[in-house]
Specification:
By secondary structure, the protein is mainly alpha-helical. It has one domain. The protein has eleven helices and no strands. The chain is flat. The two termini are about 30 Å apart. Pfam families: DUF1016_N (PF17761).
């Protein structure tokens, strides 16, 4: 029997399987990193609030804490820790102090989703958008659109809610696992260059 010296590449099923395994591992890794990152930001916010309470007799103490934390983290950990972001960490903790209740929801979203929701003043609307975004896998773009078009408010005001709900579903883009990978906040957290693409060129699926 002649030796087989060349690999027959005409049947690429096993290659696709290998690519699928690797792509899935990448996605799962970045989703886990995103979850750890969001939890870390909540913990930072909690620690800042605790420190503020220790020096609450001074009216400007809170601003000094924010500024100091921003300077130290920016110097040691790089981008992503400007004063605005540090204030967001603080606000994140204050608005969702019972994180255990929200973990199953927040774990499905990126930090960018959470930042968008933090801007909403109405507590009920804020909670609604957070839950809907997680359960329906809204992309950040869809979340932005639904907030800007007052989807929650229109739904409450509508006698017949079905047309409003149908409109939202028809225009919704689903949050993909690769959205966690290409989110610049994750790359910044890992201190990786945000200009580099870590996303597979194709979404490999098993055949």
């Amino acid at each position: 029997m002649p030796k087989r010296t060349d690999i027959d590449m005409s049947d690429g099923a096993y290659i696709n399987d290998i690519k699928y395994i690797l792509a899935t591992a990448h996605q799962q890794t970045y989703i886990a990193i995103n979850s750890a990152m969001v939890n870390a930001y909540w913990q930072i916010g909690k620690r800042i609030v605790q420190e503020e309470q220790c020096g609450q007799a001074r009216a400007d103490y809170g601003k000094e804490v924010i500024k100091q934390v921003s300077q130290v983290l920016s110097q040691e950990f790089g981008r992503g820790f400007g004063e605005r972001n540090i204030r967001n960490f603080r606000q994140f903790y204050l608005m969702f102090s019972d994180l255990d209740i929200w973990k199953s929801v927040i774990s499905k979203l990126t930090w960018t989703h959470i930042q968008r929701v933090l801007k909403i003043q109405n507590e009920q609307a804020r909670r609604y958008y957070l839950i809907e975004a997680a359960e329906n896998h809204w992309s950040v773009r869809v979340l932005d659109r639904n907030i800007s078009t007052l989807y929650y408010e229109r739904l409450l005001a509508s006698v017949d809610k079905e047309p409003v709900h149908t409109e939202m579903q028809q225009k919704s883009a689903v949050l993909q696992p690769c959205d966690f990978i290409k989110n610049p906040t994750v790359l910044e957290f890992l201190r990786l260059p945000t200009h580099y693409s870590y996303i597979p060129k194709r979404n490999w699926k098993r055949h």
